[in-house]
Write a structure and sequence with these properties.
single chain, alpha+beta, 3-stranded antiparallel beta sheet, 8 strands, globular
Length: 266
């Protein structure tokens, strides 16, 4: 399958720079790969990549695991797959050099459901956390699993979607980790929701964090991690366009927001 990339950034050349740097990072990594960008089609604002290997998006794999009523080979691979994803993100943070120098910082002052002391605690952790070139949209829709061995192939690092400075290139390690936790906790198509096995979501999140910590040799503060996930979930809610379908989705996400607050306070 040939992959096409549509323009997101400050300029089309910026997009080319980001995906080229992603490919360079993947050449240093032992835990993830990335598609090689091969040509620019400026008139179509499109980058053409080499062919992706046979496989599937992490989102499709995970939806299938969530709704299966029985244990299958895909379910048996769940721990291994999300452990690999965590290791991959840790190496992405180690090797990816963002073309943007500005650091994104999150403002927690408008977060509902958290006391001032908890917010201060989270902000203190984030202020002292390592700063890295970040992906900006690290979720189940931007990881491809190679069919033969479930090797993660990371796609499309973009400027941060939800931050005031949409062209920040660096942030604390918690941004990308929290983004994946937010997606795994809250962001699902409506047809999946009635069939979700919540214990499988918790297992996926746990193994993802475990993989990141082992590969990075860091211990993540859970309150700060889930605080960032909560911030990103609220930003996603604010970005949703008004429609009947999205109103139903937003009610589901709000219900899951309570789960994130419980994790912050636990």
């Amino acid at each position: 399958m040939k992959l096409y990339y549509k323009h997101h950034g400050k300029s089309f050349q910026d997009d080319w720079e980001r995906v080229s740097r992603l490919y360079s990072a993947s050449m240093l990594s032992t835990t993830f790969e990335a598609p090689k960008p091969v040509s620019l089609q400026a008139e179509k604002q499109t980058i053409v990549y080499e062919h992706l290997p046979e496989g599937q998006l992490l989102a499709y794999y995970f939806f299938r695991v969530l709704i299966q009523p029985w244990r299958t080979s895909a379910f048996n691979d769940l721990e291994k797959v999300f452990y690999k994803i965590g290791c991959s993100l840790a190496q992405f943070h180690r090797y990816y050099e963002s073309p943007y120098s500005k650091t994104v910082r999150l403002d927690f002052s408008a977060i509902d459901g958290l006391s001032g002391s908890i917010i201060n605690q989270i902000e203190k952790v984030l202020d002292n956390a390592p700063i890295v070139g970040f992906h900006g949209d690290f979720g189940t829709g931007n990881v491809w699993l190679r069919g033969s061995d479930c090797m993660p192939i990371i796609l499309d690092p973009i400027p941060s979607l939800f931050c005031p400075d949409s062209h920040g290139g660096k942030s604390s390690i918690y941004y990308d980790v929290g983004h994946m936790v937010s997606v795994l906790s809250c962001v699902y198509p409506l047809w999946v929701v009635p069939f979700i096995k919540w214990n499988r979501i918790n297992l996926a999140i746990s193994m993802f964090i475990h993989g990141y910590e082992e590969e990075s040799k860091l211990v993540l503060d859970r309150s700060a991690l889930y605080g960032v996930a909560l911030w990103l979930t609220d930003a996603y809610l604010k970005s949703m366009r008004q429609s009947i379908r999205n109103n139903i989705r937003s009610r589901f996400i709000v219900s899951r927001r309570g789960y994130l607050i419980e994790e912050i306070l636990s």
